[in-house]
Amino acid sequence: MDKKQNINKDKKPGVNLTWVYMAVIFILGFLIFNDSFSSSGYNKEVPYTEFQEHIAKHRGTEIKIEKNSSTAYLTINPDQVRTVFKRSVKEVGKNPTVSTRYGSLDKLEGFVESVPGMHITYTEETNYFNYFLSFILPTLLLVGLWFLLFRRMGSGGGSGGIFSVGKSKARLIEKGEGTHVSFKDVAGQEGAKEEVKEIVDFLKNPSKYTELGGKIPKGALLVGPPGTGKTLLAKAVAGEAGVPFFSLSGSDFVEMFVGVGASRVRDLFRQAKEKAPSIVFIDEIDAIGRARSGKSAIGTNDERENTLNQLLTEMDGFGTNSGVIVMAATNRVEILDSALLRPGRFDRQIQLDLPELSERIAIFKVHLAPLKLDESLDVDFLARQTPGFSGADIANVCNEAALIAARRNSPSVNIQHFLDAIDRTIGGLEKKGKVMTAEEKRRIAIHEAGHASVSWLIEYGNPLVKVTIIPRGRALGAAWYLPEERVNSTQEHLLDDICSLVAGRAAEEIVTGQISTGALNDLSRATKEAFSIVAYYGMGKEVHNLCYYNEQDNGFVKPYSEQTAQLIDEEVKRIVNEQYQRAKDIILSHRDQLLQLAEMLVEHEVVFTEDVESIFGKRPWKSRTDELLEEQRKEEEGEDAAKEDKE
Ligand code: ADP
Ligand code: MG
Ligand code: ZN
Distance (Å, rounded) from C-alpha 223 to C-alpha 225? Predict the structure, then answer.
């Protein structure tokens, strides 16, 4: 199916059902009130002689002769109804008739003329109007309704009506049509871009690769967290590949009818092979590619498994050089069926990671381009404030900043708008309406000051950006850090994380002597982290060097014994308790400074790194980012020095 057709289908005239209802009501009304119709109401066929008798006895005066069917009708006078029909007037209704088939019209006419006061009307033909109303119209209506219903059912699926339910719903982007997305629009992700470009190259110059005996890969899987640009990259391929590009989403295969998914897969590959060389792109492939369960006890997944099996078959089916490359994207590669991942199917995995600092700068540049910016805006600063943000988050921040600027009637988007947009992306909406008593405010301030001071005072605490007690989203307050983009974490890193997580509650307990529900989120994260230290990273005392990480954890079957479960529980408890005690010790020895910070928070609601530094003094440790930057600088200086030596 080609793209233009698709567009036409989208414009399918909307069938307005009200018109149909109105027509039905109108016709029913017509049938009930139309006289000509009720005249063909009650009728009794009688032998010719009886008919003559009724006329002779003046039981009616109106005779209607229908020549086509050689039938004569006599309308019976109301006072004669009982005698003729043995029924009440009410039962037979208005204008009841008796009818007979006559042999010769002349004879009948002769007889009628002999009786005075008779009045004859003739109808040459059968009443086509009545015929139409009573037979053709209802049929037409039924057929029409039926037709409409089918179209509606079909259009629910998207295109083509019910009869094309097994057809693939892929959108075809032909050569030269382009999607207006090019590789330039995908910032960062250089590695992934290279790989994808190579795939396009395979299709364009296959001989270059096959001459040396190599085989062209059949499939490539784009893997990465949500928002890292997988779909965007595929769109860029569609725009720049210069070969037909079939694009669809894994969920397009799923339909309520059995067998549809498999037949759609077949149809898709048939079309793709016809247009080869071509690319098939299946977005969110986990919708069909999830691991097959093996035991289909519940049996509901059979349809999905059929679809997956068909996909596997098709990918095996076409020869190596048939010129169809399948690309797919997922953010949950670990749940995919291993059969999909084996060489010969998706033999290439292209990893897209959350962008690093330099990549974030590039992504910011792409999305800042269409905005009207304040001249002093510093892109590096923005990128530094957004660790852990995906490309989609950054796109969102840029858009949000523009909206905030517009709301404040600002002539351009400035740094404050961006900072507010970032805050909002991280923490949700500011809740200005929430009213707090002075005491509640103080408790939250102490809690947040606890987080901030402990993470300031331990070696691997994340570098602080700011602390606030302005409620946002579901949080009452927050200490915001630049999470360190560590390559891997040591046990000390993880324990320090837990220590600063439980520090909020520790501060509450020490300063106010009361603990509150505000620590729910902290405690849940600390517990999870402690659990992974023991059960996944093998860093426990008793449970040592064992990893119980279960990729397809369904929560029912635990991969360890009951005794081990108990050991893990105890170790988790021990770790969290130890870190809680450690946090309390730190807070006790810095109690005055913490109170100072809390007071500052109550007063200003927001406190920045500089303020914390003015209370606690400079940190003796460098953050990872600082260290990296320093090393980079040294390297550059070294290069310069080497150059000078040569000269
Ligand atoms: P996903 O990986 O979940 O498929 P998308 O490709 O749909 O993510 O990305 C969503 C949006 O985020 C894109 O439309 C784009 O605006 C932005 N985006 C994501 N990654 C990048 C990137 N590397 N460069 C530029 N914009 C990006
Ligand atoms: Mg996507
Ligand atoms: Zn907290």
Answer: 7
Ligand 1 in reach of 504 Cβ (< 6 A): no
Ligand 1 atom with the smallest distance to the CA of 359 is: 23
Residue 344 and residue 351: Cα distance in Å, rounded?
18
User: What does the alpha-carbon distance between residue 290 and residue 280 come to, in Å, rounded to a whole number?
Assistant: 19
| pLDDT (0 to 100) of residue 298 | 53
Amino acid identity, residue 258? V
Q: Relative to the alpha carbon of 391, which ligand is closest?
A: 1
Q: What is the pLDDT of residue 33?
A: 53
pLDDT at 567: 94
pLDDT tens digit sequence for 284-339: 888 888 776 655 445 556 777 888 888 888 887 755 557 788 889 998 888 888 88
CA angle 364, 365, 370 (to 5 degrees): 100
pLDDT, position 4? 37
Mark the ranges of the chain whose per-residue pLDDT is less than 50: 1-15, 35-39, 156-161, 296-297
Beta strand residue intervals within 264-356, DSSP E: 278-283, 324-330, 348-351
Q: Within 13 Å and on the Cβ side, how many CA atoms surround 456?
A: 29
Q: In which region does residue 12 sit, left (phi positive, over 0), alpha (psi from -120 to 50) or beta (all else)?
A: beta
Which of 15, 229, 232, 36 is CA-nearest to residue 134? Answer: 36
pLDDT, residue 18, reads 62
pLDDT of amino acid 32: 55
Q: Assess contact for 167 and 160: CB atoms under 8 A.
A: yes
CA of residue 67 relative to chain centroid, distance: 70
Kindly report the protein residue whose alpha carbon is nearest to atom 12 of ligand 1: 392
Structure tokens at 269: 């590959």
pTM beyond 0.85: the answer is no
> Among 323, 314, 310, which residue's Cα sits nearest to residue 345?
314
Rounded Cα gap, residues 555 and 187, in angstroms: 39
How many angstroms is it from 485 CA to the middle of ligand 2? 24
Q: Ligand 3: distance of its center to the CA of 228 in Å?
A: 29
What is the structure's pLDDT at 1?
37
Hey, whose CA ends up nearest to atom 1 of ligand 1?
227
Residue-level pLDDT at 501: 94
Q: Is 230 in the pocket of ligand 1 (CB under 6 A)?
A: yes
Query: Residues lining ligand 2 (ion), CB within 5 A?
Result: 231
Check residue 125 and give its pLDDT: 55
Nearby residues of 539 by Cβ (< 8 Å), 6 or more positions away: 491, 494, 533
**277 vs 218: CA distance, rounded Å:** 12
Residue of 180, 232, 282, 365 to test ligand 1 pocket, by largest number of atoms within 8 Å of CB: 232
